[in-house]
Write a structure and sequence with these properties.
The protein has 221 residues and is of the alpha+beta class. Strand 4 and strand 5 form a beta hairpin. Strands 3-4-5-11-7-8 form a six-stranded antiparallel beta sheet, covered by helices on one side. A three-stranded antiparallel beta sheet has the order 6-10-9, with no helix packed on it. A two-stranded antiparallel ribbon has the order 1-2. 29% of the residues are buried. The chain has helices at 11-21, 24-30, 65-74, 91-97, 162-168, 177-185, and strands at residues 58-59, 62-63, 79-81, 104-112, 115-123, 133-140, 149-155, 190-191, 197-198, 202-209, 213-220. Helix 1 runs parallel beside helix 3 (65-74) and helix 5 runs antiparallel to helix 6. The mean pLDDT is 94.
Length: 221
């Protein structure tokens, strides 16, 4: 693996993708562009080594973290609704300086019928250890009804991250059948639902958002 390409195997690439792709709608609105969809360039390298760092969404059939990010995007259906984060950097700041100082902790939400989907990310250009973000969320009721059910999916060091498991195995060039099963288990992104607190006006919860992570929360009444 070329060191400069290793980021493509890690959750950082997923958090970068979330932080950049979801801002395309903001840029399109600013430039009065009718943006219908966005695409990414990726390929299949049939004889590539495990976790080779090439421009791909999978390695030897295993989903990489960035592929899960695109799956999360697909679940942001319906119409976009307002979601605000007091730690989300502005587009102009990112264009001018990148994400080199304060981390970008952002949110994007949509509503499809009686479901609200909320995507959160915690991104920094430098893939070095940093503190978790303690995120407090407050969601207004839907048509007067509190949101009482929540499904959670996560991409971070412990979820959807087979690269970490592969490194722990000693980076085998030809994993055994049992090792492949362990790597497949490490691709899982489903996580326990967070605890919700509801009142007559809103639904509230707190979660931890590790550095270089993406979280999808899906709420229903």
């Amino acid at each position: 693996i070329k060191p400069e390409l290793g980021y493509r195997n890690r959750p950082q690439y997923a958090s970068y993708t979330a932080a950049s792709f979801l801002r395309k709608s903001e840029l399109a609105a600013r430039r009065q562009v009718n943006l219908e969809r966005a695409i990414t360039w990726s390929f299949e390298f049939e004889h590539a080594a495990w976790f080779s760092g090439q421009r791909q969404l999978t390695t030897q059939g295993l989903d990489l973290p960035v592929r899960h990010a695109f799956r999360m995007f697909e679940r942001l259906r319906g119409e976009r609704i307002s979601a605000q984060s007091d730690r989300q950097l502005s587009v102009d700041e990112i264009i001018a300086k990148g994400v080199r100082e304060q981390a970008d902790i952002g949110a994007f939400a949509s509503r499809d019928g009686d479901k609200i989907s909320l995507l959160l990310w915690h991104y920094h250009d430098d893939d070095t250890p940093g503190p978790d973000a303690d995120v407090s969320l407050s969601l207004g009721n839907m048509d007067g009804k509190p949101l009482k059910s929540c499904r959670q999916q996560r991409i971070d060091e412990e979820h959807g991250n087979p690269f970490k498991a592969w490194l722990a195995m000693g980076s085998p060039k030809a994993p055994t059948v049992e090792q492949i099963k362990q790597l497949q288990a490490a691709t899982v992104i489903d996580a326990d639902a967070p605890e919700l607190a509801t009142n007559k006006d809103s639904t509230n919860l707190t979660i931890k958002l590790p550095r270089q992570s993406v979280v999808l929360l899906e709420f229903t009444p």
